[in-house]
Amino acid sequence: MNSENIIKELNFKAIRSSGAGGQHVNKTSSKIELTFDLENSESLNDNEKEILKNKLSSKLTKDNSLILFCEETRSQHRNKEIAIKRFLELIKTNLIRPKKRRKTKPSKASVKKGIENNKRTSLKKILRKKPKLD
Predict the structure, then answer these.
(1) Spans of biased composition, class Basic residues (predicted)?
(2) Which pLDDT score, from 0 to 100, does residue 21 have?
(3) Which tens digit of pLDDT belongs to each residue from 71-110?
């Protein structure tokens, strides 16, 4: 995955933001909408696209586009930087494959210790019982 090529494929749209800013908020478009077309991306290979489709299925639109919004600051440029940073982090974390789990056996010492512990508990409970009068 080449992050520089992916950034070139991103589309940005500036929208009027809600929230603090007074009358200024009605005049400027500081909210950023970042869209990434996963289906037609040239910087990701087919294997990476499939992994991202599966992992990000809840965040993708019907045409396999990823949309992120950022309206944290009153600066359009800062919001754009934050959106790019979030996007790259999202892609990187979802492309990481978890390590395959290897089955392990308990050691002989731990098995022996467990058996001894069970015997000790069993003896303790046997000694609690009332004696039989036969």
Answers:
(1) 121-134
(2) 67
(3) 888 888 999 999 999 999 999 998 888 899 999 999 999 9
Q: Is residue 85 part of a domain?
A: yes
The answer to whether 7 touches 41, Cβ cutoff 8 Å, is no
The span from the CA of 95 to the CA of 82, in Å, is 20
pLDDT at 57: 86
Of the candidates 87, 80, 9, 83, the residue with the CA atom closest to the CA atom of residue 44 = 9
Task: Give me the CATH number covering residue 52.
Answer: 3.30.160.20
Closest listed residue to residue 32, CA positions, set 97, 81, 65, 66: 81
